[in-house]
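Progress report, Aim 2. The chain analyzed during this reporting quarter is listed below.
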Amino acid sequence: MHGPALSGWLLMVLCGVAGAYCLSRAHHGTAEERSAARAEAVMGLGMAAMAVPAVLFTPPPWAWALYALLFGGAAVRALWFLRRGAGRPQHLHHLHHLVGSLAMVYMAAAMAPGAGGGGHAGHGAAATAGGVPLLTGVLLVYYAVYVLTSAGRLIPATATAGGPKPGVFRGAQPELTPACRLTMGIAMFAMLLTL
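Predicted structure tokens for the chain:
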């Protein structure tokens, strides 16, 4: 990504950990939970790969086309599940995956060498931001709202009759899933800021 190497390292680590956690969830739960975990693992690990700082690895020019194909496939998969699950509770989750996958295709295209955006962070001294400002702005607003609403759901509600209700971090593994999704939303917002 464009921007300081430290932010690239932080994004890489956060997305890598979130992606690895989602991959570990892909073996447990219902078929729908495993499917969602696989989609989130692809997103997290793909975001980690795109955020690798240039000082660690300089991707070949074709890597951006590979990212676009990977996330394009993820978008088609999300669209398929969105179409199949219309009216079900997971409908919004599939829509979020579709938006995220398309945003990653957009970022891969904007970061590709010769796309007017310069390429990977730190590659070339004259790398400038790329992308369509209006589309980037719309995606930034979407992810800002997503992060704020997701963070609000992580805060435990106070019971009127007594102390606080148990929060999402009760120690059970499924409760980390919303925090993982929030982390990837924050990372996506940060990646969009660097375009």
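The chain has one domain: 5-193. The two ends are 8 Å apart (CA to CA). These observations will guide the mutagenesis work planned for the next reporting period.
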